[in-house]
Structure formats: C-alpha cells, structure tokens
Amino acid sequence: MNSLKLGTFFAAFAFLGGHLQAHPLQAEPINHAFVYTFDQFHIPEDPDESLVNGGLLLLGELNCTTCHAVPKAWEERLKAKSGPDLSGVGSRLDPDTLWLMIRSPQSRKKGTQMPGLFAGADGDDEKVEALVEYLSSLKKDLPEVPAGDVERGKELYHKVGCVACHEPAKDVRPPKVAADAEFDKPGNASVPIALADAYDFTALSHFLKNPLAVRPSGRMPDMRISAQEASDIAAYLHIGRVAEKAAARAALKIPKQGVEKGRKIFQEMNCVACHQMGTAVLTVAGSPEPASSFAKATEDTKAGTIKRVKDLVVDKGCLAEKQPSGTPRYDLNELEKRALKLALTMVQNEDAPKLTVQEKVDWQMTRLNCYACHDRDGKGGPEDPRAQYFGLNDSGAESLGQLGNLPPNLDKVGRKLTRGWFEKVLWGKDGSVRPYMDTHMPSFGREQTEMMIAWLNEADALEKPFEIDVSGLAKHHRAEAGRQLLGAKGLACVACHGLKDRKSLGPPVIRLTHTVERLQPEYFKELLLNPQVTQPGTVMPPMFVGRKKADLEIESIWTYLREVEGQPLPEGLMSSEDFELKPDEEKRVIVFRSFIEGAGTHGIGVGFPGGLNALFDAKTSRWTVIWKGRFLDAMSNWQDRSMPPIKPLGTDVKTLPEATGERVYSGYTLGKDGVPTFRYREDGQQVEDTLRPAKGGFEHVISKNGKLTKEVLSW
Amino acid sequence: MVDEKGLGVRGLGGESGLGSTPVCGSVASVGRWVGVSFVACRKAVLKATALRDALALLLMASSAMAQEQAEYYRTETYELPKGVNFEASGIAVLPDGKLAVGLRKGEVWIAQNPGDVAKPEFKLFASGLHEILGLAWHDGALYATQRSEVTKLRDVDGDGKADEYLSASTGWGVSGAYHEYAYGPVFDKEGNLYTSLNSSMGKAWKGAGDEEKNPLWRGWVVRMTPEGKLEPWCAGFRSPCGIGQNAEGDIFITDQQGNWMPTTPLMHARKGAYFSHAESIHDAMRPESPVKIAAKQPDGITVAEAMKTVQGYTPPAVWLPYVKMGQSGTGIACDLSGGKFGPFEKQMFLGEFVLSGVNRVFLEKVGGEYQGACFPFVDGLQCAALGLNFLQDGSLVVGQSNRGWNSKGNRPFGLQRVVWTKKTPLEVEKMELTKAGFRFTFTLPVDKGSMGELTGQSYTYPFQSKYGGDELDAKPLAISSAKLSDDGLVLEVACAELRTGYVHEFELPELKARDGAPLWHRMAYYTVNKLIAD
Q: Can you tell me the ipTM of this complex?
C-alpha cells in the first residue's frame, strides 16, 4: 500500500470513524502545512520580492532549518522553533492516535506542521509500531483537574481570545449581532484543533492551562486562564468525542517491537531535532542521553545524511512537483512551495539582509502571530469576523468602543512600557490593566519574547525624548499637588480613571494605580501633552493644552502616582467616610485632638458609642460643644498637608456656657471604659471633670477637691 | 488647586527650591560633587534643565555609591503594622530597649522587639493626638510633642496602653496656620523641657480666637521648667525641625532653607541666642524675652557681614550646603553607642528630608564656640528622613514621612534602621581647624601612594528675606601644602586664606586605605566662624 493511498484512507477513516458529527469548531479542512501568518499575509498574487519573506517564515516555522543547516549569517533570522515536548505524551494520547499521527500526520491532523516520515517503505510498519510503543511508555502523572462545564467553556473559548487564531463555532453568535442578522465568518483560515478530542481530559485541561509546558515554542500561547477555566474549555472541546480506533493498525497485526527499539528509532530518525523530551524521559535502561537536537542535526549534516541549505536543489525533495518517496512529507501547497523556493534561492545566494530593529520586531511578531490580536504600525489586528467575539464584561466600557474589547494598538509601545511591565505582560504575572476586557493577553514565554523588549525600545525611541524630571527633588514634586490635579476639582482625571480599589466616576478606563510601574515617564508626558497624537483613537481629552504649567503639573501628577501608596485618594474618588471616626463601629470611646470648630486650636473631641459627642477645649479647660450623631473626620490629622480645622459631623450641635473661674489645664486620664476624665485647676483647686452618656443625654460629673457634683445635660 | 505662592514658605519638609523660584544658584558654583565632575555653569542662576542634569549626575553618583554604602552600613526596613500610615516622626528608646515611635497621625506605637525588623511586634500605646512630631523618654514617661502641647504619656494600670495624657508643656501660640509645627522635646540635666516651634508662615484660622492675630513664640525654642513655667529661650528659627543634643548635653537645632535661611544650618541653641529668621523678632521685644536684638535687621547682606554687624546674631555652627548636602535638614541623633555604630563616636547624625538620607557632623570648639564640618553619610532611604534615634544595639533608627513635600525616596512613610556592618570605611573621621589650615583625621591609615591633589573653595551665604540663597563670594582655596602623617591617619593641610563666616569646601583626592578600599566620601565642608587665636 503506498503512503498516499494510505493517507487518503486514514483521512476518511479518521473523520468518519472518529466523529460521527463534526465538532462545532471544525473549520473547513486545511490541506496544507499551515502557518497562520503565512496564509494571512501572502496570496498567490504576491510578487516574488514580497513572497520571499513568507518563504523565510516557513523555513523557520516549519522547522526546515532544524535539520538543514543555514549559513551562519542566516541562523538568527531562520531559527527553528521547538516542536511539542513529548515527555508524558503517553498520558495525553492513546496508542491508536499516536499511530495515526506518526503514520500519516497530515491525515490525522489536517494542516499539521509535522512532516510525514513513513512512506510505506519496508520496515516502516514495524518502526511506527515501535515508536508508538515507546511514546506510549512516556507517562507522566498529572494532578487532578476540576470537572469542566461545557457551556462555560464555550463562552470562554469565544470571549477570551481563542478565536483570534481558532475557528469560532458555527452555533455561537457574536454577542452584539442581532438574532436574525447575518454575520461574517472569518476570512482567514483558522488554526485547526484536530487532536483535542483525542486528548485525555486531564491532559487537555493541563495543556490549556499551561500550553508552554508541552509546546515551548509559544505558538500556542498560555492564555492565563484558571484551572477551572481550562477544564471548562477542555470539556467544551470534548463534546461529541468518540474514542478513536485505528482499524488499519489492528489490521496490520504487527507484533510488539519493544520500547527500547522505539527509543532508538526515535533517535535515529532525528525526531529529537524537533521534539524536546523533557529531562528524565530518554534515559531508558541506562542508555546514553541523545545528542541535543541541533547538535544532532549538525552531525548529520556533517555526515552528509542531511543536506545543508546551500546544497539543496530547490525544486527537488518536498518542493518537487511530485514529491519523491522517502522524503519528509509536508503537504506544501503551491504558494508555499513557491515561497520556499524563493527563500532557499535567497539564502543560497545572498547574505542575510541586515534587518532594521523595526523589521526585527515585525519578524518576531509575525512568527509569534502577535498580529492576530494587535495592530502595530498599520499591520495586523483581528479581522472583524473574529473581533466581534472578543468580550467586554463591564457595560460601562461600552462607551470606549473597540478600545473596550480589542487588544491595544502597539504603536510606540517600546517607549511606552517599562521593562518591568513588559516582563509582566509578555511572560510574567499581573500585567493586565484592562479588567473590563474579556480577552487575555497570553504569555508566549520568555524565550520567545524577551529579545523584543530591547528591539521595541530602540524601534520606538524618539530622537528627542520628552523631558520630564522624575527625581522627586523639584519643588513642585509634591504628591498633594498631583492629587489635587487628578481630583474632581482639578483636571478631573478621576472622571474616567479609577485608582486602587475605587472606580472612576465615569467609564472604567485604565486605573492609574500602576502608572509609574507601567509607563515610561517620558511617554506619560508625551501622552498627557497630546493624547490624540500619541495614541490615535484614544478617548482621552487633551487636558494640558494651553496650560502654562503643564510640565510642572504633569510632574506633580507623576509624583503623586509614584507615592500613591498611603496617600489619600484624589477628590471624587475619595469617600467622605474614608477617615471618619466611628465610635459605634469601633465600639469604644474615641478621643481625638485637632483644630476643631467650637473648641479652637486646643480642641479635644470625645465620641461615645451610641452617638453622643462632646468637645473639650484644653486651653480654657471646659466642655464647649456637645452634639449627636456622627463624630469627627480624621482626614485633616491623618492625611492633609495643611491641617485644616475640622467640625462636628453630627446634628443638634449645642454650645455650652463659658466657665467663670480661672482654669489651668493639666491633662486627662482614661478610665477602664476608655472614658476620659479631664483635669484642671480652677482658682487653685484641683478639678476632675467627666462627661458620660446617661439617660436623656450626658451625665456631667465634676469632682472638686474630692467633692462631687452631678448634672444631666439634655438637649 | 495648590496655591503656588504658598510654596514661598515652607515648614517641616522644606521645599527643594527647584522650579518656580529662582533659588537654584547655590548649585552654580559647584565644580565637583560626590566624585563626579561637571562643567560648572557660569550663570548666576541656572536654568532648571541644567540643574536637572546636575541632579541627574548627583543621583547617578549616589546609585553608584549604594553598593559601597551597603558594605559599611546596611539599611534595614521595618515590617509595620498593617493598614497604618506609619508616618514615623518621633523616635524614643525606652530604658528596657524597646522602641517607641510617634506618628504624625497622632499615635504612639511601641516595638517590643526592635532588633528584628521583620518581627518588631509593634503595639499601639497611645492615640488621638494632634500631629506628633517628636517623642522622648524621660524619667519614667514618654513625652509626645503635639501641635499645642507636649503630652506626658504613662501607662498607670500596666495594660500596655497609655491611660494618662498629662500636659507637660503648653502655652505657645497656635493660630491654626499650617506651618505651626512643634518639635521635640529634649530635656537638660536640670529637667527643663525644650520644644522648638516653627514660624507660623501661613494663614491663621479665625477659630483660633486671640491667637489668630498674634501667636506667641513662633520661631522660638521655648522651655518648660520643672516648676511649670514656660520660658522663651532663643529665637530666629524658621523651621527648626531637628532638636537634639550632643554628647555634652548641649542643644542643637537644624533648620530648613527658605527666607533668612540660605541653606540647612546646624545651630547651637542657648539662652538669648538669635539665629536670623525675622518672624521671631517682634516677640523678642517682649519684656520676658532673653533675646536682645534690634527691632529691624538688615536685609541682603552676607552672613559673614551679619556676623560683624547684626546685633545678637549667632551664626550656625555648621552650614550644610544646598543640594550637595541635601535640601532640608531634619532630626538629630548623637552616637553614644560606644563604637557600636562605627568610628564616629559622639558625632551627630542629621536626617535629610528631600534626598532621603542621613548626614554626619563633626564639631569642635574654637574660641569657645562650636563649629565644624559636615560630611555625606548614607542615602537611598525609602522615604524622607524625619526623626532619628539610636537603639541600644547601636543601630540608627530613621522615622520617615513625606506627607506634604517631595522626597527622593518615594515611599510615603516608613521606618528603617541603619546598621554598621562592622567593616570600617575609609572616611574623614574628624576635620579640625588649625592655625595654618585644617587637620583631617582618617578612620583608617591612608595609603601614601594614593595621595593626589586637594582642591576646594570657600563661600559665604546671603543674609536675606528672599527665599534660599546662592553661595556667594566663592574663591578657590589657596592650598599650599598637604602632608600625610607617617602612620597615614592624619592629613595636615595648609591654606593661605581662611575666612570667617565662610564654608570651606574640600574635595579630597581619591585616597585609598592600605587594603585598597577607596575613601568613601570625598567631600567635606567646614564652616569657619572663628579662627584659632594666637
């Protein structure tokens, strides 16, 4: 049986036998090795000088350069990517699926980038069987995962950004499309999801939670979802699942080959060139570690078993019109073949062109497909039929339009974000500042993205950066000045921007909490001085146009945001209750000294649980005011720069008569119950003076030289 | 909105003098600082951008020194009670070694275990006070200075919380103007309690009653006698944020740049002395005033001239040149640790607000008066330094808050301590005036081979009502010889012209200790008020 026929047979079998009904995510089958950005950015009408870039992309993305060494000058540009890590693959896929995948990858997984290596030559059946045995032996215990919920999974799949690359389901309508309206299907082909249904559920959930562990290349990025969400999506991908049976495998009746044989074949056939194997996996029975993929490839190249790129004949092998048997089979389509031929010719004849840093960024964004979600300098961004699924979870953000649900434009991002924030966003944690957006910024892994930070910094640098003094030293660098500018009576930034745990007064745009950690100060100034030019399409108004002290004001705001921890919030965000002293809540008597209206600069307020309050003037040594209800606001003492006087917050404020004698204040003591007794000398005699809530108001107890008098203050 | 004019006056933190007010001239004459050279701008008043560059250099230099600093002095950050804005302004050490901290929000917390910054075990001791800006332990009680009173706090029933809040000192004027800070207290041997009072510098509050129009003793140091009498003591302060004592128990004050204060001074306070800020003059006319000065003082002369012509004027013992040594001096602590804090025993350490660090001062008596030199010490603290004090283990606790002002350390508040690593830095330990010039004594023997050229300049400051002030009448020092002693510990420098009323600024060569360690700080600033008599 020749491989082609076998392939066709398996294709039909897998499809009909495996799935009685196609999964709703099943896209139009793709019949060629699929590289998303190649298909997205290249069409048959492309002139050679453009298409050659697509060919270079394929050389890297299809891992051609893993085995076919390229001239040194090209190595960086055409760096191969890691294929799936096969450690633990035996816990993910059953032997029949492995068999189908190895025997004819293109049949089992339409559009796969894995080449078929078994054309049906003598001994192939045994080799495949041995490989299946070996790979099936690679087990890895996975921790249990939560049960998944199909409906939730379906919703998540569509709103968190999976559909940027994968197919939206036929039975899911984009959220804003009316029930009877038609809506467009994606124009670009989707990355096929062809193995998910064969995956073990636990393994699939783990894979979705942390795809980089299995696919370190980051082409399937880590969507930063929770374990529960991963299980939900896994459950959704598993609907209609039927256990796969490779009838042809059974029919061949190949005897057991032994794991050890499979392991050897795995090495001999250079599978390790693409597949990482984790650590301990390959050390079966004390056998030596296999050479690393690239070293192995180099050895083979030296040995002449694998040709270097410069020795390849461009229209032979997998690029031949009719591919000869015994060469790796990629199922390249005509456009891909043309592109690859152009690229190979270029690599053979020219030195690698020196890319500008801007081109380097573009190259890496193309390889990682950042363009699926992001627009940068006019390139990329999700096509509308996909974008319409991206979710928004806060109706307040509707007014932001596409800024509310679509990932941000990346123009100027290299001078916008700090290194620290890039790290959070690209591979770290807690980099998200748009909680209203359902779409997650995925992690592509540090290895794939770290180099981009410096490139972006350089690519986006201004020849003459905006000047901003963030030393903290200048006179106007007062957090308070910045706070007032942000506040409702200043520039009212709080109308749109929240801060810390407080929402804005209006639409929920990015909270300012992490501004200083996140933004480069020069960009902060550039943005504030001219928002529309800096971020075309932003809804931020140009607040600083015509303000003579814009420079200083922006620096003040920066200072406030830099020191925001422990600072009071800007007016508008701050609740008047933030610093209110509440005896009822604290269940204790509160004594509080400040500048207080009704008692002057030596005022001591006493608030009792139950809502009775009094003011003692430590200068004239007397109770001056009593009142009911709320007590005092401590904001002045606790947060203000200038210590403005405060006043009783409650009602029924009653002023008490002035004292008659000459009094000298000496302090107060607190009883076990926290009630203060004030002490002073009156006309030379020691007095103790206490107010205490009683029936009908306060009981006023005065002890003068040991002689007690009591009165009740009712009002 | 903030009234920018309001920045013309400042209090606790001190404005840095950059930006809107044209008071950056003090930098203009700086040729080198902290080991970094830059071309001095010849304009009398620098443009903000040039100053910014200069500051950038300063910051770069300081970050380069951070590692060196950690070799000698380690900064440790206290774990603080959750949810409390720990604006540590007053630091007191109890006889049992516990650490009491007064907060600006009006609370006193006591760390049961201050030697462990990760678990200091802070417990709330007192609350409800009105902006504590100083805390002291004296004779069995804690004393917290509030806006209008020093309050004696005691825990009589032994439950760990104060139940006695007695008035220990009060009676100065409080009009409600927001700069009316009160700092302290310190106690002398006789038990007098001293408080330094900020000038009002701001709008009074109608609710303040009689004191609205004429708050008493603002810009003064007052003392409460053991008999309970409040006495005015000395005057002429602007923002006397630091009040402390040297090893002999003499009282010193730091003030902050502004009107009548060209830069941060360290002043020896004593009865009847007057230190230049004019707001306190009218109270000096009161009969009970011990300060005897004229009702008007000249405006726009130099400090050197004022020393000769202004009746009653006492110059500071040390000037701390603006920016070079910080921008706003704060708390004072004297190292009485007996060597646990390194080689600077009995010297004074001054907090620095804007640059968020600590400076060091060496004093000697010349002609019966204190004068001496200041040196950079540690920087890079997390927030503006306010209150300083030494724990019993010899570490220096620095209370921090920058509410209301800017500071290089960008945390809004906190508590850190500076701990000697037991490694002695090569540093100028003492800088004494000699007949011929100056004698530098080093903490370690200096390698003779590392001797190089010594340079320096001297300058005075304006005595003026205008805010801040440039370095004036600057001249390079005429250094005729510099001889290192055989043991490498003493450098005798001969200087042709010594000028009274002038800061003598030195940049030492890149000296090395015998083990190759470089001189930690190369700048030294000696204020000559008196010369050594024949």
A: 0.89
